[in-house]
Design a protein that fits this description.
alpha/beta, Rossmann fold, 2 domains, 4-stranded parallel β-sheet
Length: 323
Amino acid sequence: MPHSRAKSLIESGHVSWICSHADILIIGDTTPHGRAILESLLLDPPHQCTSRKVVVELTNRFDWDVQWGQDMDAYYTLFRELVKQSERDGRLEGRIEFVANNLAEGRWIEGRIGVSMEGRVRIVRPLGIVKGGGYEYPNDLPPQNKSVVATQRHKSNIHSYLLHELDLSDSLALFPFGHKYGGPQNLLKFKAFLEIPYQFSTMKFYENIASGVPQLIPTPRFLLELYYSGLHGLPIWDPAYSLATLDPGLLTNRYSLEWAKYVDYYAPEFESFVYLFDSFDELVALLGMEDLDVEKKVRVKGPLFYETYRKEIVREWELILMK
């Protein structure tokens, strides 16, 4: 949403109407869609949002789809002021809270607006719940088979390489890019799920753990190698999306493995539920195992872990909404 549209929604009274009907507002998924509400927080009555609290749930990069140029500059200025005013004795103290389901969101903001977000973004992981337990498995996909590993094509060359250069077509069930497969319950009918990370955070990662789906994932080092080879990219490796530290003298190398610690797939709390491979040879070895989940027993331990973990997540949301 551009500033002009946000201004129009504020002046028309639409924002005031929304805020008058909710004690707590949650801006979820795509933050710029709630730009009018955020801008109104810095205005005086009668245009200021009157809701007791606004929760900004940063799940899809806070500046997604904002146009570069003056509008982006204005948007970054808005966020600097929101962060400043959310501090102790600020006009928005206790009225706005930033929440993210991953560690990368806060660092992304830091690199864009030049303000530290340390201690300012509460990390609350996804619940890992699939609506209705999932959906039927589409009949136009490869047949479910516990002797092969499922995977989904991305906008990269990696899967073509696996199938045609490494001749792994008998070991992999490939889903087309963007094709629905019915959720993790359907993945359980395969040996495992091979994921080549294309974002630093995805909901299906958590859903798979919660449902007990073993996941095969390249190590950060090997994922970087795939980037250099032109087989697969990840935004944090791309110069166009480079994340910077606040100190220009300490700019993180745009291809640095240090950024892996902000990627969900490599978070220490989830290492017991993923199988990492550091080369194509290691991947081939995993694919060739009759029971590759014998070591970590993700099918059993994943759901047990998430049953307890989900309660912690709910408690975090209670603290956010009730305080």
